């Protein structure tokens, strides 16, 4: 059966059985040509050749400032993770309209990081190795791979394990970005059977896995994963090393010049920019193999998964084969059908795919919520390639013997329009040859993967029209019935997609959400235009935007713990990422009283491209910008204790200084390697603020050990490779030490005669900045007493630097260490910083200021002690 409407006739071509097409001889090969038929052929079979391609030649403006500035791309692709890295899907209709094969420019892309740049002339010399548990380790160039092995061509569908994740994110946010239903694409791949290369290397006896590694260097190492060796050796599984896609050299986003293609499994196993095949006895220990592409049990919450590494180490939860899945392409989202003079029948259409080479054997549609089902027609275009044996794009196309199905199929069903008019929705489900059927309910898991419940499109009657809605729209695009149902207060997991079925009891599946604190004023409906917002980008009345809502910062300027500057630097801007990353639930709960209204849709759009302040080519004298993130590159790391490192960054040019007043701090932003979410934390650098060209940040690392969680930021910083950029923003802070006894709190100047500085652990860093400023200036009359509490001697940070600063300054400065876990040799104080210690060293003079920075417990107890000892609020400053 064939549905003429699902195919692009331009892509159909008559080819003959056993036709001998020109051998592959060109390098790099040219795009597919229309091949000529000789007339003597006996039997003609129709196979599908790729749809017309229009390779993008322009680097898009938004890519120009990213590491991918060498990659031309199609502007139709929908970006799922902001500008960079490049993770995209095509609009679902555009993808479906291309037919069975997808053009490389619309093929979905999943890049964990920057695309390695490979020049055309270097393609033949691209090297990759076969190593590990083999008798004969090999290094091959692509030229050798093509010259010395048999070339094959085969149609294969790739699907990201995150396909359809947006639906899961609507139920409960997972740790993954929001794919719509177009994270799937099909191409004719040309290359060599992976087994051929591995056979040459002769795996040893205990060899069981094939690990693969790409050339893309990421925050947690090179991208890598593994599959089982016996799968690779099984011809039915068709695993290959490919260098061509639809007859042309792989494009940069898809692994140019060489990638693995693992049919029937999730796209994540098909490693791009392939550099290494490592034969091992155990599955890959690559970070991305462990922390990506897994379906953890549904009750494992984000917290639990972060606290308990055992969930990630368990290979039972790693995804290999795809699961049975399907989606409706037509009716499209927001499509309308006229009831008056429209056609009598509506043809619903969509795609389905199975996993592990299993064939989709039925696709069923229901227009009564699953009470009754209709059987759809299926077109398995892949079967047409089984009928021929020929050379295609320089590779032998011979699938006659293979029964596995590596590709998606398209289905369609004609439904009387009047029946659709009476229906509330349209659902599809597919079943494979093992009778694996898509479930009605979603299986939610932390990473949001392998989402495959019935795909549902709602129908509403509006006058003479039927209007259709898909469950979601990809990325942050608004729309879809899931969002609508949620807004109306429906529970999406109640068993009927959040709708209230009269007479039925609500028995919702519980996916416990992290408590979301409402931040808007109830009932406030006030649209704010971009011009209004722009008028409030100054200190008269700073407004800022969080998740599309506009707030005023004016009433809170004085009390804000980060100082007025932290509000001012967000004035007129969208500060969603930072605000959400830094603020407590208590802070969020205060927001409704500052809520002014909702940003208009056009204003939202114009905010997403920030007015670029750093675009000018003038070298900037200072690095930090309080209104935009600026990038510094990691230059080196140095461990200074068992759990503390100094990270040195290079500023934009050797003459540049940081631009941080003494006593203030800055924000560091990194992307979580797993979910790409921004991680933002405040730090005080320890390098001199006047230092040129460089910046040192001391960071205490909370790494996972045994059953210990490890901090998000610590993990990300620790695995950050040298040469990688990190975002900085600032300065922020309420306090500034101007010098010689002058300081400013919230911009109001005051005099100090002495500082009492109380700190613990890495809380020393802001204290150290102020202490150094005082001690370095011989004419500064201010005195400083530092009370520094730690556990062990080795935990005392910057001890030598502190001692050095004291040299010759004994009359002005004093540093007192106290340890809770002191050894016998320790001659100094023992125990916590308590009231006696504070009483003895800090005297509540009018012109004394207490600066405090340390772990929460320390700050809490010090706060209490100081209050009891009669210190006034304004004399004490907590960093
Ligand atoms: N080297 C490398 N290979 C990779 C990735 C990557 O980020 N780096 N992403 C993987 C994932 S998760 C998917 S779904 C597929 C996507 O392939 P495509 O971008 O060609 O569609 O590539 C896989 N191979
Ligand atoms: Mo993926």
From TrEMBL:
This is Nitrate reductase. Residues 1-12 have a biased composition (Polar residues). It holds the Pfam family Cyt-b5. Residues 525-600 form the Cytochrome b5 heme-binding domain. It catalyses: nitrite + NADP(+) + H2O = nitrate + NADPH + H(+). Residues 627-738 form the FAD-binding FR-type domain. Belongs to the nitrate reductase family. Binds 1 Mo-molybdopterin (Mo-MPT) cofactor per subunit. Residues 1-73 are annotated as: Disordered. The keyword Transferase does not apply.
């Amino acid at each position: 059966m064939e549905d003429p409407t699902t195919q692009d006739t331009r892509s159909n071509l008559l080819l003959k059985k056993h036709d001998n097409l020109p051998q592959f001889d060109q390098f790099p090969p040219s795009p597919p040509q229309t091949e000529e038929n000789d007339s003597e052929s006996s039997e003609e079979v129709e196979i599908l050749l790729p749809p017309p391609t229009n390779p993008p030649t322009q680097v898009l403006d938004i890519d120009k400032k990213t590491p991918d500035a060498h990659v031309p791309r199609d502007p139709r692709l929908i970006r799922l993770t902001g500008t960079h890295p490049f993770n995209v899907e095509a609009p679902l209709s555009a993808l479906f309209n291309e037919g069975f094969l997808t053009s490389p420019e619309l093929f979905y892309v999943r890049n964990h990081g920057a695309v390695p740049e490979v020049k055309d002339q270097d393609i033949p010399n691209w090297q990759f190795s076969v190593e590990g548990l083999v008798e004969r380790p090999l290094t091959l160039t692509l030229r050798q791979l093509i010259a010395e092995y048999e070339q094959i061509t085969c149609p294969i569908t790739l699907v990201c394990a995150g396909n359809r994740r947006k639906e899961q994110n609507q139920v409960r946010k997972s740790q993954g970005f929001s794919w719509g239903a177009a994270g799937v694409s099909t191409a004719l791949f040309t290359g060599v059977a992976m087994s051929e290369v591995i056979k040459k290397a002769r795996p040893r006896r205990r060899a069981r896995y094939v690990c693969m590694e790409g050339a893309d260097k990421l925050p947690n190492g090179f991208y890598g994963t593994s599959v089982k060796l016996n799968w690779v050796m099984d011809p039915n599984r068709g695993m290959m090393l490919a260098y061509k896609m639809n007859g042309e050299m792989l494009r940069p986003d898809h692994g140019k010049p060489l990638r693995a293609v693992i049919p029937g499994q999730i796209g994540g196993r098909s490693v791009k920019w392939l550099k290494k095949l490592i034969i091992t006895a155990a599955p890959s220990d690559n970070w991305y193999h462990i922390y990506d592409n897994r379906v953890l049990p549904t009750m494992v919450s984000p917290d639990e998964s972060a606290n308990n590494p055992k969930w990630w180490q368990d290979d039972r939860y790693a995804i290999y084969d795809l699961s049975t899945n399907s989606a409706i392409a037509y009716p499209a989202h927001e499509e309308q059908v006229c009831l008056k003079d429209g056609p009598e029948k509506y043809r619903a259409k969509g795609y389905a795919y199975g996993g592990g080479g299993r064939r989709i054997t039925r696709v069923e549609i229901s227009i009564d919520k699953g009470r009754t089902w209709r059987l759809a027609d299926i077109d398995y275009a892949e079967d047409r390639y089984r009928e021929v044996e020929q050379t295609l794009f320089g590779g032998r196309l011979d699938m006659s013997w293979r029964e596995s199905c590596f590709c998606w199929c398209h289905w369609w069903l004609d439904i009387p329009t009047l029946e659709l008019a009476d229906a509330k929705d349209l659902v599809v489900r597919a079943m494979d040859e093992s009778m694996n059927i898509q479930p009605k309910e979603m299986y939610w898991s932390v990473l949001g993967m392998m989402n495959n419940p019935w795909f549902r499109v709602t129908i509403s009657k509006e006058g003479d029209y039927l209007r259709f809605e898909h469950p979601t729209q990809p990325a942050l695009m608004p729309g879809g019935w899931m969002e609508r149902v949620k807004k109306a207060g429906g529970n999406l997991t109640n068993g009927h997609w959040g709708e209230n079925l009269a007479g039925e009891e609500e028995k919702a599946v519980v996916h416990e959400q992290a408590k979301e604190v409402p931040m808007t004023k109830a009932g406030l409906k006030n649209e704010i235009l971009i011009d209004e917002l722009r008028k409030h980008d100054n200190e008269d009345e700073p407004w800022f935007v969080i998740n599309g809502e506009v707030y005023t910062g004016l009433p809170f300027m004085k009390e804000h713990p980060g100082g007025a500057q932290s509000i001012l630097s967000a004035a007129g801007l969208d500060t969603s990422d930072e605000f959400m990353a830094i603020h407590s639930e208590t802070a969020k709960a205060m927001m409704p009283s500052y809520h002014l209204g909702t940003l208009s849709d056009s204003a939202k759009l114009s905010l997403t491209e920030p007015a670029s302040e750093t675009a000018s080519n003038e070298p900037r004298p200072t690095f930090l910008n309080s209104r935009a993130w600026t990038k510094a590159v990691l230059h080196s790391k140095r461990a200074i204790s068992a759990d503390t490192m100094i990270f040195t960054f290079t500023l934009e040019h050797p003459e540049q200084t940081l631009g941080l007043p003494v006593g203030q701090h800055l924000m560091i932003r990194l992307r979580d390697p797993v979910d790409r979410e921004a991680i933002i934390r405040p730090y005080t650098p320890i390098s001199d603020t006047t230092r040129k060209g460089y910046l040192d940040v001391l960071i205490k690392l909370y790494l996972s050990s045994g059953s210990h969680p490890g901090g998000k930021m610590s993990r990300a910083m620790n695995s950050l490779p040298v040469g990688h950029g990190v975002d900085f923003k600032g300065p922020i802070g309420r306090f500034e030490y101007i010098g010689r006894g002058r300081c400013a709190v919230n911009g109001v100047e005051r005099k100090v005669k002495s500082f009492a500085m109380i700190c613990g652990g890495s809380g020393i860093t802001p204290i150290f900045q102020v202490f150094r400023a005082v001690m370095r200036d011989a004419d500064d009359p201010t005195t400083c007493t530092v009370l520094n509490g730690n556990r062990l001697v080795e935990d005392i940070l910057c001890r030598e630097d502190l001692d050095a600063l004291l040299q010759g300054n004994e009359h002005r400065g004093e540093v007192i260490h106290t340890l809770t876990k002191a050894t016998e040799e320790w001659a100094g104080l023992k125990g916590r910083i308590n009231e006696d210690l504070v009483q003895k060293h800090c005297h509540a003079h009018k012109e004394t200021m207490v600066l405090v920075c340390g772990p929460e417990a320390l700050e809490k107890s010090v706060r209490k002690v100081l209050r009891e000892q009669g210190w006034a609020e304004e004399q004490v400053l907590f960093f």
